[in-house]
Amino acid sequence: MADKTDTTSEPKPGDASRNTPPGPAHVSRRRLLGTAGAAGAAALVAGGAAGAAGAEAVREGPDPLSSVGSAAVPFHGPHQSGILQPAQAHAHLAAFDLMPTADRKAAAALMRRWSDATADMMDGRTPQGDELGVALDAGPSSLTITFGFGRTFFDRTGLAAKRPDALEPLPAFTADALDPKRSEGDLWVQIGADDTLVTFHALRMLQKLAAGTARMRWQMNGFNRTPGATEQPMTGRNLMGQIDGTNNPKQSDANFNTRIFVPDDRNGADGWMAGGSYAVVRRIRMLLDTWDNLSLDQQEKVIGRRKSDGAPLSGGQETTRADLNKVGSDGALAIAGDAHIRVASPATNRGAAMLRRAFNYHDGFRDDGAPDAGLLFVAWQADPLKGFTPVQRKLDRGDGLSRFLRHESSGLFAVPGGCERGEYVGQRLLEG
What is the pLDDT of residues 392-403, one digit of tens each? Predict the structure, then answer.
């Protein structure tokens, strides 16, 4: 896992990569309440500090809504949000099934409602008809909401002729122990934000707007490190303690778009997917009790990287390209033959790659006392038959890390491109 996740370094609070382009500030009801509260708190802190220790004791800091809370991601554009942006601190993944009476027209109306509400929430506005009040005092907090269609969606809406070939079911893998009730689905939603109440509010709004048209099939909660929690931006760690995401494709790569997004000039029955991508979603439980019993040296050999700083065992720093041919003083390969970074490397998979944007999860403890925890794996690619499938087959056969993982749910979803103002996500499919 260490070399397939999101490599984008964690931004500092207020990082421009999570903000909308420069322009007039929009003050919503949410932000107004939050700013008023923050201003009152700041006044109390400043007054108390001045009385106790003088001006030197007053620590100047950014208003909360000028950093993490105020960061906003645009809803409209060529691609949906939640693909290229850094993975946020909190997430919900969910799948919905259409009701038996819901047809193509009902699905289109639902996507219109969802898109309108999402545009409002991502900009920090209160959606029409929202009486929940959960996030009234919060800014958008880098909220992104992403929508996708599962294979069964096309049969239920009479659109089987427009189902992409790339949505063929994924093959079975040795480490699979899949629960059908927590897999697949007609509609898929990915929600991420840097505030827990913002993500919960978004999920509840989508669920309420789906009433009568679709019901939730499954839902999972994920998390990452909070922006600003480290002294400087750095690649995140997974629940095994490993720096996770060093070797992800980068937007600066010459072939990034061709690997991750469907070409803009796509024609034919699946031409509606132009500018879109395919998401493979897997709930991967980590056998942490077994893993934690390994020595540090054993753990590092399984991954092929140092645990302290993520540097490859062939030498260098985290971002140093791993030398898969280097031999140690003992005559053995510095990076073992079954080390994760060797088996997952594009160099050993004919260039196959995917953009991972994963979240950790912890759902309590199992009957045997082991933690029910691991990774909510989300991988993006232009074609899963050329991205996820060949790499996972290789990992399934020869990855030393597979001994410590169990894949317990799975889904594959077609995620259409973004939409312009006045449009909704999936409109080219549902009205084309």
Answer: 999 999 999 999
